[in-house]
Write a structure and sequence with these properties.
The structure holds two protein chains of two kinds. By secondary structure, chain A is of the alpha/beta class. Chain A is built from eight helices and ten strands. In chain A, helix 3 packs across helix 4, helix 3 packs parallel to helix 5 and helix 5 runs parallel beside helix 6. In chain B, the strands form two sheets. In chain B, strands 6-7-5-8-4-3-10-1-11 form a nine-stranded mixed β-sheet. A two-stranded antiparallel sheet of chain B has the order 2-9. The chains are: A alpha/beta, B alpha+beta.
Amino acid sequence: MYHLQDITKVYRRRQEEVVAFKAASLDIGLGEYVAVVGPSGSGKTTLLSMLGGMLSPDSGKVWFGGESLYDLPINERTRRRREQIGFVFQTFNLVPYLTALENVQVPLFLHGVSKTEQRNRAVALLEQVGLGNRIEHKPSELSTGQQQRVALARTLANNPRLILADEPTGNLDPTSREAVLSLFDHFVSEGRTIVMVTHDPGAAARASRRLCLNDGTLVTSNEIPAARAA
Amino acid sequence: MNLKTLVWRELAERPSAMLTSTLTILLGVTALVAIRHVTVFSEREVGQQLQSLGANVLVLPKDATLQDYYSADLTERTLPESHVASILLENLPGVERLSPKLCVSAKVANRDVTLTGILPQSEFQAKAAWQSVSLFSNKHEGCKKAACGPKTYDAAPETLASERTIDQLKGNEAVIGADVAEFSGLKPGQSVEMLGEKLQVLAVLPRTGTVDDSRVFAHLHTVQRLTNAGEVVNAIEVMGCCEDAAGGLVPKLAELLPDAKVVTISQVVSTQVGINRLMSQMSLFVLGILVIVGGASVASTISSNVRERRREVGTLMALGATPSLVTRMFLLKAWALGIVGAVGGSVLGLIVAMVLGSQWAGVTVKPLPELIALSIGAALVITTLAALWPARSAAKLDPCCCFQEV
C-alpha cells in the first residue's frame, strides 16, 4: 500500500534545522496493523501527516497505491484522502456545533453523497458503534468515549481502506480505550490497514507490527508475534 | 448536510460573534438608504415645484422672504399694481406673459382656502392696445423659441393649472382648485360665496398636487375690492419665453422696479437644491464609510473566525475538503452577514426615510426598489471583497494543524 523512498523532512526555525523524519525505505502492506511508537518529538506525527498526504517531504517519494502522492496536484491528493483514508484523532476533532449525526455526515457531504444517503449511512454507522440513541447529541453532550466512537463512525463513513490514527486512546478511560481498540481489531479483520501513532504500550501490542522512532529516525521495525498481538 | 448547513450551524451557535460586523453593515446601509431616498424624493419635489411655479422670474415686495412665496400664502406684504403696467409698458425683451397675484384667506363650506386674485390675459391685450404698445412682442437676443402666430386669448379656463395664466375671467367669476371642488361639491355653473359676494364657478382645475388645489381664483380687482386692499398685489410672476430669458430679465426688472425684490425661480428653490446636493454628497460619504468601516469589520470578523477555527479547518481538509470549499465556506458566512445587514439596513433605512422625510424635508417617501437593490448589492460586494483575503488564507492553512493539541 505504502512505499516510502529516501524520505527526509526537516523543520527549520531561526537558522536551526531539525530532522523531523528520515527513512531510506519503509513499506506498509495492505491489511497491516502498524503501531508507530517513540518519545515525544520523535517524528511520529510527521510520519502520519506525510502518509496522509498533508505534509510533503523535503526529499524522497511517498508511493501510495502505486502513485507518487506528492507528485499529484493538491485536489487529486485531497480526493485520495477523501476516498481512501480515514483519520482518528487523539482529541476526536469533532465539529463542536454539529450533532453526532451531522459530524458523521461531513465526509459523506464532502464526497458528494446525497442527503438521504448521507443520513441513512450516518445512522447505520452510529448504530454500529453503539450510539444509535445519541444521534442528535452535540459533542459537548457526550462522554469522551462516546465522542471517540462518533469520530470512529465518521472515519468509516467513506469506507476507507486505510485508517491513520493519532493517539486514538490517549484521552480515554480504560473501558472506552478497550472499546476503541476492539473496533480497530474489527477493522483489521475486515481487511483495512491501520497506522496508529501511540504512546500506549498496550495499544501498540495489539498491532501486528511496531515501528520505533527516535529523533526522526526509524530505529526498529518489528513484527509482533501473533500470540502477543492477539 | 451541505455547505449551507455547515455555515448556518456555525452562525447559529455563536451569533454574538458576528453581531458587530452585521450591525456595522446594517447601520451603514440604513444611513445610505435613508439619505438616498430622502434626496431622491426631495429632488423630485423640487422638480415638481419648479414646474408648478411655472414663472421664470418673480417680482416680490422688498421685505418679502422667498419662503413667503414658496408657501404661496402672501397676505401681508404687497406691491403697487402699477408695477404691472410699468413692466408692460417697458416691453422688456423676452417677457411673454405677466401674472399679478393677490392672495387672501377665505372660507368655503367652512374650510380655509386661499382666495387668489389674478388678472386675465385679455385685459393685458386691452391695456396694451390702449397704450399703443405691442404686447409681449420683444424677443431677446438669441431667443430659441419658435415664432408663433397672433394670440387669440380664448383658451379654456382649465389651462390656468398648467399655464399659470388665464385668458378670460369676469369680475363675478371664479375658478376653483380640485380639493375645493371635492370638499364643497361645487361644479361649474354653481355659485360660491366668497367674502360676502357670490361668484359663479367658471371651471374646476384638474388636480396638480400643489397648493393650487386648495385655491379659489377670482379676478384681481374683485379680490382687491372685497378685501379693501387697494390697488396692490402680493407678487408678479413674469414668464419668459425660454429659460435663457430669465437671467437677462432680472437686472432690467430690478432697475425698473427699485422698490421690489426680483428673483428667479431657481433662486427660490436654491436652498433646497443646495440641501439636496449636500445630501447627495453625504450619501457618497456614507458609502465611503460603509466601504471602510463595514469592510474592515467584516475582514476582522472573518480573520478572527479563521484563527479560532484553524483546527476545525485542518480536520475538514483531512477529511477531504478542498481549498476552494474552505474558501466558499468563509465567503458564504460573510455573505450571510452582508445579506442580514443589508436587508435589515434597507428596511430600517426606508422606515427612517419615510418618517423623517416627511418631518424634516417635507417630502413623502416611497420605496425605490432599484435603490434598495443597489444598496444590498453594494453591501454584498463590500463583504465579499473584505472576506476574500481571510477566506483564501483559511484555504491555505496547513491541514496538519488538525493533529495539534488544543
